[in-house]
Design a protein that fits this description.
The chain has a single domain, classed as Ribosomal Protein S5, domain 2 (2-Layer Sandwich). Helix content is 33%, strand content 31%. The protein is built from four helices and ten strands; from the N terminus they run βββαβαβββββαβα. The model has no long low-confidence stretch (mean pLDDT 93).
Length: 195
């Protein structure tokens, strides 16, 4: 049975429809009005082998923060809904990947406790479509707060913000795929018997 979720969020600042299939093929249809956000979410989807549909708009004429953070909220809720049972999943995921001069490590635990460790230093820049590099941490904070994932993201090295951020999203997709993979064991992966 495919693990799917559809989340809709409408506020005075944003309007978002997001559909996630955790057992997809890496297909995406993402339109957020911020080209670089579309790009990194497509990378997350491709390397995580999820299917992801997003149609999102917001008050980006003010700044990109509201829209990017709200997309993080919606993706976090979708992940939580898809993994509600948590039976038979791997639970833990870890990956280190390079992207040109950048190298990023991501480890995570689908253990029911929301925590973000974001050790990713980079220059403050405004990238394509008005995305501020400082907002990436807010995206992941919103995501973990709504998915109840313990997520550690570390930049091992790197200079170009584009490469660092893209590596973060690719690594997150790969680690989440590893952690959410069905192992064939029907038990809940916890000594408590509950996550």
């Amino acid at each position: 049975m495919e693990r799917k979720a559809k989340i809709e969020r409408r506020t005075k600042e944003t309007d978002i429809i997001l559909e996630l299939n955790m057992d997809g093929e890496g297909n995406s249809d993402i339109k957020t009005t911020i080209p670089f956000v579309d790009h990194v979410l497509e990378s997350f989807t491709c390397h995580g082998k999820f299917n992801l549909y997003i149609k999102a708009s917001g008050d980006t004429y003010v700044e990109s923060h509201h829209l990017v953070e709200d997309i993080g909220i919606c993706l976090g809720k979708a992940i939580s809904e898809c993994l509600e049972e948590k039976k038979g999943i791997n639970r833990f995921g870890y990956v280190t990947i390079p992207m040109d001069e950048a190298e990023v490590s991501v480890s995570l635990d689908i253990g029911g406790r929301a925590f973000l460790s974001y050790r990713v230093e980079m220059e403050y820049e405004v990238l394509e479509g008005g995305l501020e590099t400082s907002i990436i941490e807010d995206f992941f904070q919103a995501l973990v707060s709504n998915s109840f994932i313990n997520l550690h993201i570390t930049k091992n090295c790197g200079i170009a913000s584009h490469h660092i951020i893209e590596a973060v999203f690719k690594a997150f997709g790969m680690a989440l795929r590893q952690a959410s993979r069905i192992t064939g064991d029907v038990s809940i992966p916890s000594t408590k018997g509950l996550i």
